[in-house]
Amino acid sequence: MATEATKIAIDAGFRHIDAAYLYQNEEEVGLAIRSKIADGTVKREDIFYTSKLPSTCHRPELVQLCLEKSLKKLQLDYVDLYLIHFPVSMKPGDDFNPVVENGTLLFDTVDLRDTWEAMEKCKDAGLAKSIGVSNFNHRQLEMILNKPGLKYKPVCNQVECHPYLNQSKLLDYCKSKDIVLVAYGALGTQRYKNWIDENAPFLLEDPVLCAMAEKHKRTPALISLRYLLQRGVVIVAKSFAEKRIKENMQVFEFQLPPEDMAILDGLNKNYRFVTSGLTSAHPNYPYSDEY
Question: Which residues are CB-contacts of 111 (< 8 A; sequence separation ≥ 6)?
Fold first, then answer.
């Protein structure tokens, strides 16, 4: 599925492919990228590939080893961007969610500044062209930025962002530090049972969003994507359906006027679909802060 969807996306014009060690599909994604290079559709330098360091590999000595595992699965020489996937550190091992018998997660204690130094070494080694973070709050970003001897600052922070969680304060903070905000869950997330409350609202059924879609003769999904794009947010949109993958490219074909942007600003409820609640007992749980 991941191979086919990635090929369709590249054929449709997508060049930013976002994956992670945690998703366990890097062999399939790598196969798709290499096949599209082989058939002449793209060159390697046309593709911007992002991977992420799992929480079980925060210890500095594990960082490069994990990236090398990703590269081996991908059969690529480098990634364009490597992110710390989540600021909560977990016990190293093959299990991505190590738990004891009662279901409690087995946490680890790692100074993320040490993890970041190991990320910097991956960049110096040419294994990652750029390095950044994901799911960090502004305080955690500040900690990295103020680290003594900082060599490279995070180029981006990938977080959940959509009209119900527009991240305006975090976006302003990131812009002030010249850090790009990248949005996942831009369409209200895929409704995975293990992650999402079954009573969560359906963003794309929001009456305001639907009325605006009708006005512009676009889909609610495209209105949501365009809203983020016009705020200076980079979007990671996930789909396995060819029709939707192609439709998402239409985001560049229209603009929302300022009055529509203001209406969409009003949809914000600071509603988070992905709360990662099981990690809330860890001191580095990122969502206790306002932003």
Answer: none
- 291 assigned to some structural domain: no
Domain count, the chain: 1
Find, among 168, 140, 185, 164, the residue nearest to 276 by Cα.
Answer: 185
Q: Which domain holds residue 75?
A: 2-286
Residues 6 or more apart from 73 whose CB is under 8 A from it?
Answer: 26, 27, 30
> Which residues are CB-neighbours of 257 under 8 A, at least 6 positions away?
none
CATH assignment at residue 158: 3.20.20.100
Total residue length of the chain: 291
Q: Among this protein's residues, is 227 annotated catalytic?
A: no
**pLDDT per position as a tens digit, 131-174:** 999 999 999 999 999 999 999 999 999 999 999 999 999 999 99
Distance CA 87, CA 98 (A): 16
DSSP letter at 252 equals: G
Residue of 229, 233, 230, 205 lying closest to 219 (CA atoms): 205
Distance CA 263, CA 230 (A): 14
Residues belonging to the binding site for substrate are 85
In a domain, 123, yes or no: yes
Instruction: Determine the residue type at 237.
Output: A
Q: Tell me: the pLDDT tens digits for 52-87? A: 999 999 999 999 999 999 999 999 999 999 999 999
Q: Integer distance in angstroms from the first to the last C-alpha of the chain?
A: 35
Q: What residues are designated binding site?
A: 85
pTM check: above 0.90: yes
Selecting among 23, 78, 152, 291, the annotated active-site residue is 23
